[in-house]
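Async update (no meeting this week)

Hi team, since we skipped the sync, here's where things stand on the single-chain job. The sequence we agreed to prioritize is pasted below, unchanged from the tracker. I ran it this morning and attached the output directly underneath so nobody has to dig for it. Comments welcome in thread, and please keep replies under the output.
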Amino acid sequence: MKKNIAVILSLAMAFSMGAGGAAASESGASKDTSSFKDLSDLEAATKAKYDEMIKAGIFDGVGDGVFGVKEKMNRAQFAKVAALIFHLKVDSSLKSSVFSDVKADDPANGYAPPYIEAIYKAGITDGYGDNQFNPAGEVSKEQLAAFLLRGLKLDSKAKMTPGVSDKTVSDWARGYVALALEKKLMTSGPDGTFGGTSAATRDVLLLSAYEAMKQAVPAKPDTVTNVSIAQAEATGAKTITVTLNGAIADTSKLKVSVSRGASAQTAALKWNENQNQVLLTLDSKMTEGTYTVKLEAVQGGGLTVDKGSADISVQNEKITKIEFVNASETVAQGEKVSIDFKALNQYDEQSDLPASRFNIMMSPDLSPQVSGSAQSLFVNVYKAVNSSPALLVRDQLFSVTIIAPDHTAQASKTFKVGDRQSVAKVELGDVQFTGDKKQLEAGDTAVIAYKAYDQYGFEVKDLKTLREGTSTYNTGSGALLSGTTMDSNQLAVDKGFDFYEPEGSDDRPVLKVFTAPVDTSTFLADQDISLSVVANQSGQTATKTVKLVAPKIPYEVSFGAMNNTIAWGDDDIYLPIVVKDKFGNLLSNDDMQKYANDIQVYAYGSAGVQVGNYETTGENRGKVKISGLKGDGENTRKSGSLTVNAIVVKSGKSAAWSTTVLEKRYPSQIYVSSEPKPKMLPSLVPFGTGSSNGLTENNINFKFKDQYGEDFDKDYTGYEVEISFSQTAGTVTNNVYFSKGSFSGTPTWVLGASPASGYPNTISFIGDDTRVTGYSAANNVIRSMRDTGLSFTPVQGREMKERIK
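Output:
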C-alpha cells in the first residue's frame, strides 16, 4: 500500500514541476509548440520564442498536450524560471531553505527549495515577510517586473526611474513598471493600462522571461592557467563544443585541434565571450565514429594543460523532425508557389539537405519542382486550376507529404486553393556589390536582398508574378539606366531597377540595380538614391537608400614638385602630374588610367626633348615622361628651354611647367660621404701574413657633386682625382696599405709618406668612360671610387688629404 501511495505522490510532484517550468524530461526534450494544441495559432515571431523556451526545458505543459497559456503562475514556479534564465548557481541537493514555509516534502512545490534559495541569494526576492516565501502564492505583474529587473541587476536604476501614471500599478512598483516597459520586458494591455496588481499568467511569464534571458549576462567563470577539458560534445552536424574548467586570459595561447582517428580535421574556432568555451566548426559533416579533441599550451604562453584530450562518439546526421514553415494553409493560384519546410537533425538544428534529397508525394500529383539548394518545393497551382481537365478548383484541398532519407521522419500537411496569387508585401535587405567593391559606382551592377510575400503569407519566388505584382521606382539624377524592355510575357522591365532571372543555385529571382555608365561630359557629385518596390495589391512600399559614389572625372590638372635640375645625358625624367575632379577629390592612378584620353600633354621650347602623355602603367604611373636626353650630341648640346602643358579636354582646365635643360653634367667637387675614424692604432702584424687577424682597418667613402651642386653618379671622361698622404708628426716606420673592401688578401696599393719609404704617397684615378668596375693599377677607373669603401691601415702620425684636378 505504501508503495502505491509513493508512486501517486511522485506523479503529483512531477506534474507540479512541469507546470511550473521545470526542465523537460528526456522524453520531453524534443518538445516544442507543436506538442501543445493551445499553441497552434501563435504568430511566427511569438512561436519562435515559445519554441526556444520549451526546447531549453525552461517551460513545459500543464497536462497532456496542453500548455496552459492563461493559467496563473505561482511564486515557486517563478523561482525556477528565474534561476534558469539568469544562470544562477543552483544546489540541487538542497532540502531546506531560509524560509520556514519552503519545504522539500511539500507535495506541490517540493522541487522548489534549491531554486528559491538561489533567487534569494541573488537578491531577486527577500520573501513575503515574517520569514515566509509563500511558494503557492500568485505573482502579480508588477511583482514580476520587479523580480526580472532585480535579476538583471537594475534594481537601483528602477528606483530612480520616474514612475508610470497608471492607477493599476501600486506606488512602490511604478518605477519598476516604467523601466520594464522601457526595456521591453513587458507590455501594457490593449486599454493602455499595465494591470500591475493582476496575477501574471503563463504567457506573460514566458514572454517576459524570454526578453529578460536575452538581456541577462552570464557570470564570467574564474580565470585559470592550468587548463582542462570539462566537457566536449557534438552540438551540430559540423560542430563540436568544448567547455574548459574555467576562463583563459588569452585564447591565442591555447591550441585546440580535432581529429578522427589518425586523420586531422580542419576546423574554424570561435570562442565565447567568457573565453571558457570554444565552438569548432568542421569543413564537412561528421560521420559515425570517434572524434578526439586535443588541447596544447603555446610554449611560453603561461598556460599548462592537465586533462588535454577528450573523445566524442558521433553518429551520422539523422533527420528527426520535419516541419512545414508556411504561414497559412491556403495557397494562392500561383505559377510557382513555394512550399517550404524545415528538416531538423538530432542536434535540433536545421539540416542543409536540400528538398531533392527527400521523398515528396502530393495528392493529387501536381508534379512539383523540387529545389536542389533549399528545403523548398514549387507547385504550379495556377496551371493545375486552369488545365483541362482541371486538377484543382478554388477551395479544393490537396496534401503534401515529405519523407526524410532513410525514412527517419516524415510530415504531411493539407493545403486549400485560394485566389490568384498577388504580391502583398515586400521587404528589402542589404546591397550586394560586385566583386570586392564596397560601394556603388557609375556603370556598376548590384543586387538587393529581398523577400516578397503573397496575400496568404507565402514567399513569392516566381519571376512573372514579381514583375506583374510589383512596381519599382528610384530617385536620383541620371543615376540608373533609363527606359524599359519587354520580357517574354510582354511585361515591362525597368532597365535600371527590377527583378531578373535567378542566378547560381538560388531559386529566387534577383532584384538588380544597373547604374548609368560614366559620362565624362558631366561632373556629378555623390548622391543618395532611393530604391522602392511597391506591392501592387496592397500598396505597401519597401524602400532602400543607397549611396551612389560619383566617378572621379578629371576636371583640373597641375604638376607636382620636382626639384632636381634636368641636364643632357640624364636618364629619362618623370614629372609628377596631379589631377582632381570638380569637387576637389584627388584622382588615384587607377582613376586616371580610366580617363587617359581625357588629359592631353604636349611640350614646346628650344631644348627639343621628347615629352609623352602621362604614364598609365608601371612604377611611374601618373607621371609625364621626359626622354631623349641621352645619345648622340649629349656632350655638345647647349642649354635650352622646355615647357610642358597638360589640359583636361572636357573642362578646358590646364597647367604648365617650365624649366631649362642644362649642359651635360661633369664632376666638379669631391667630398667624403663616410668619414674614417680620426684615430687608430697601428697594425699589430705585418700585412701579407695570410691572415687579417690583428690588422687595423678603417674605411672611407667618397662622393662627387656636379657643376650644379647635385650629387654626381655618372661615368665621365676628362678628369683626374688624386689622393695623397703626408706625414704631419712623428716618425714613420711602416707603410700604409690600401685595398678595396677589406684586408683579406693582397693590398691594392702600398703608399709611403716620404720618398725614403720606396713607395709613392699619391693615388691618381683617371676618369674613364668605359663603365668598367673594380680597381686597376695601370688605369684606375674613377667609377670604382663613387661611394666605394677604401680600407686602409693607418700609421700613427699620418693623415689623408685629397684634391681634385
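Quick observations from my side:
The radius of gyration is 43 Å.
The mean pLDDT is 84.
Reply here if anything looks off.
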